[in-house]
# Entry
Amino acid sequence: MVGSEGPRRSTRDWVVDSLCFVVAIFGGFLLYDDGSRDPVPSALLAFDFWTGMALCLTLWFRRRWPVQLAVIAALVSTFSDTAGAATLLLIITVAIYRPFRTTLLIFLINAASLAIYLQVRQKPESLQEVAIWAVLIYSAVAGWGLYLRSRRQLLQTLRDRADRAETVARLQAQQAQMRAREEIAREMHDVLGHRLSLLSVHAGALAYRPDATTDEVAGAAETIGASAHQALQDLREVIGVLRAPVGELPQPTFADLPVLVEDSRAAGVPVDLEFDAVGNPPDHVGRTAYRIVQEGLTNALKHAPGHPVRIQVIGAPGNGLSVEVTNPAPGKRPGAGQGLIGLSERAQLADGRLEHGRTPEGEFRLAAWLPWPA
# Structure
């Protein structure tokens, strides 16, 4: 409530302003001299009283125009006793709402008005005595105002820091939530996409083999049932940990790669695997390699069913881990590419790189290099 267009007064502001007004009126009556102490004309005494009361009324606007009203108070104080309490309250207001330089200027103006007051009111006290008392009172009042200003600034700073901390915490929580959602989305895509692709292959085989024998149909149905059961099991595992930290999601390991390839072969996909990795890479590197091979097999099942798939996994500590999946790419590959986007993010998180696209031979190639520290 500093500027001319400040916010409305709160209930607390109304209470404080009312108390200030009452104190100023009461102090004005106590300080008013009816002429018994100072031999001054009655007209000046009347002017003293009414201007002092008018200055008390201006206290209702002290928050909006503190400096202007303090200057007016200094002028009125050159002849008025009644304005004393209101003047002190206005000095406090300036100290609270304006910088120290402005407060010092108002202090000096009121000190100058004191010398004029002593001449106008013909006070018997010496100038030195009155000046000492006035400086002490003005200093105490201005000091109290400066203390209140510093305290308000400190509280405002603490509120701003708390607001900023709350905003930062909220943004960090939102970012963590988004990262968790992206991680869960990648897991759902990687885990279920491959299982459902195998299920689709077996179901498609039944649809295109009307001449299949009873044993073949029964075997395919058994495989479909097993794949569906495994897909539901994977789904339960992922859903079961949605409320848990992302790190607790079910994660495959590098050693599970041969099992992944065998599952695809069991679904009728001719897979040629070249596996030449010495030792086990770090967990995050091994998981990323597993997901790359899994996505490559899933895409091959979806877009090039029945065509051979070549997989190369070559690496050693200190040389890095290279993963490459190639298969024929007949026609244009449909799909939104969400799996490839997720793989790119995984590779970047592992400080690796990922490439994908058609080769000059008309094949689709998915290749990645991942760091493998020595």
User: Anything to note?
Assistant: The longest strand covers residues 320-328. DSSP finds ten helices and five strands in the chain. Strands lie at 271-277, 309-316, 320-328, 353-358, 363-370. The radius of gyration is 43 Å.
